[in-house]
Amino acid sequence: MPNEGVSFVSRIASLSNRQSDRMHYQQILQVLAEILVIERVLGLSWPENTSFFLEPAGRTGKRPELMVSTPDHQFLFEVKSPSLLDHQAKRASNGIQLPHRGLVPLEQIDELVSDQSVTLPRDTPVKDFLVSCEKKFSGFPTVPGANISVIVWDDYIYEPIGSLLGIRGGLLTLDTWNIDSSGDPVTYPSIDGIILIRHMTYFQRALAEDDLIDRHGLFDFGSATALPNVFIQNPNGREVPESIKTGLRAIDVEDKRLAHMAEYHVQDYVFWM
User: Fold this and answer.
1) Is the Cβ–Cβ distance between 243 and 231 less than 8 Å?
2) Would residue 30 count as lying in a domain?
3) Residue 109 above 90 pLDDT?
């Protein structure tokens, strides 16, 4: 992919000369997320005669991040990192958090909590991301392979897990709060799997020149003993190869290895002490 490295550097370099600009800061985080995932995907063990295409155009003109074309399969990847800045500030200061829309409808929260110090779910960008991915992936023919959505989050990985799989309201469930004009659940048939990567904290610490603790650099993906990322299968999607999940250090969300790690479970309420 000639000149694509220069393209990424140019995008980052263009985000300058605006002191403390939150929008530029978030845009930098998004570019870093793209670089992290694309570099990792390119380094996987692909068969000979595999080709890589950055931002390929589908029939609709929509462009996912990356297409990997092997002699027999096609894999599409789309990367997003929703803005978490305001959400992180609220999470740090509020005593109560509702990680996903579930047991309590959002319109009833004010009635239940008098002091208003509640951190609400950050699930709207997750929904928007799924809708965007569906539009991008649906523009490509359905051939052997898989379409994979990648969301880069911070360490509070239970938030996107709950947004996607919460028993009441999960975006990948029949009780999803995202319904169409006919009242039917919105589905995402072109998305086969979703990988949640807990790396945003490392980006933010690196940009602040803080210690990265267990990583050796901004794009260090972590060792085999590091806390894992998460893979979520779309119930109606095609199977995503284990080599891709392993390469992105993603463990199935139902894997028994996550059973004793609270941050990988759907949380209905969180009370911060």
Assistant:
1) no
2) yes
3) no
Q: How many independent structural domains does the chain possess?
A: 1
The widest CA-to-CA distance across the chain, in whole angstroms, is: 62
Please, are residues 120 and 163 in contact by the beta-carbon 8 Å criterion?
no
Closest alpha carbon to 202 in 186, 226, 182: 226
The residue type at 230: V
Q: Phi/psi class of residue 195: alpha, beta or left (left: φ > 0; alpha: ψ in -120 to 50)?
A: beta
- Return the minimum-mean-pLDDT range out of 104-108, 200-204, 228-232: 104-108
The sign of the torsion formed by the CA atoms of 244, 247, 250, 254 equals positive
Cβ(171)–Cβ(126) under 8 Å? Answer: yes
Give the domain extent around 21: 4-91+122-257
Supply the pTM of this predicted model: 0.92
Query: Can you tell me the distance from the alpha carbon of 75 to that of 160, in angstroms, rounded to the nearest whole number?
Result: 23
Residue 193 lies in a domain: yes
Q: Which of 27-31, 40-44, 93-97, 122-126 has the lowest mean pLDDT?
A: 93-97
Between helix 4-13 and helix 22-42 the angle, nearest 10°, is 160
pLDDT of residue 119: 83
Is the residue at 102 inside a domain? no
Give the strands of the sheet with 96-97, arranged side by side: 118-119, 96-97, 270-271
Measure the CA–CA gap between 36 and 103, rounded to whole angstroms.
Answer: 35
Token couple for 147:
């379409």
Q: What is the DSSP letter of 103?
A: S
Residue 87 pLDDT = 87
**Residues 230/198/150/39 CA torsion (nearest 10 deg):** -110
Give CA–CA dist 39/259, Å, rounded: 30
Within a domain: residue 59?
yes
Q: Which pair of structure tokens corresponds to residue 227?
A: 């806390």
